[in-house]
Amino acid sequence: MNRPNYITPAGYAALRREYEALFAVERPKLVDTIAWAAGNGDRSENGDYIYGRKRLREIDRRLGFLSKRMKAAKVVDPAQQEDRTRIWFGATATIADEDDNHRTLTFVGDDEAEAGAGRVGWNSPIARALRGAAVGDVRRVMLPAGEREYEVMAIDYPST
Prior knowledge:
The protein is α/β, with parallel strands linked by helices and 160 residues long. The chain has 2 domains: 5-75, Helix Hairpins; 78-156, Chitinase A, domain 3 (Roll). Helices cover 39% and strands 24% of the residues. It has helices at residues 9-38, 47-72, 125-130; strands at residues 5-7, 73-75, 92-96, 102-108, 119-121, 138-143, 146-156.
C-alpha cells in the first residue's frame, strides 16, 4: 500500500466491530458446525461440511483484508482540523454544478465511503479535485459521465 489509509474514528470503530464479530462470534460457530458435520461420516455429500468450509474460507479472507486495512489505517479526527476554510479530510461540503444542482458530500476514508448517503472516499475523483478548495472556488472534475464543474458553496466540519 503506497498511500495512507485515512479513516475517521467512527470508520475505524466500524472496521474493528466487523473484525471482532467475525473472529469472536461467527467463525467459532462455523468451526463447531464443520466439526459436527465432519463427525457425521461421508464428507463428499455432506452439505453442512462443504458449505461450512466454503464460508470459513470467505470469513478468513475477510478477516485478512480487515486486518491489513486496520494496520494501514491512519485515524484522523475531522473535528481536530485546524484549517476549516478549505476542504480537507472529514469535511462536509455543499457543492453546486453548472445547472445549479446542489449536493452535500462528506469526505471520508475509502473504507467508509457510501455514495448513496453522500459519503465519498478521500481518493475518489471528486474528492481529489475538491481537496484544498475554499468557498467560492470552482473545480473541474473528470467523472465517468464526462467532465463537470463544481462550485464550493459551503464547508463544515464536526465540532469537537
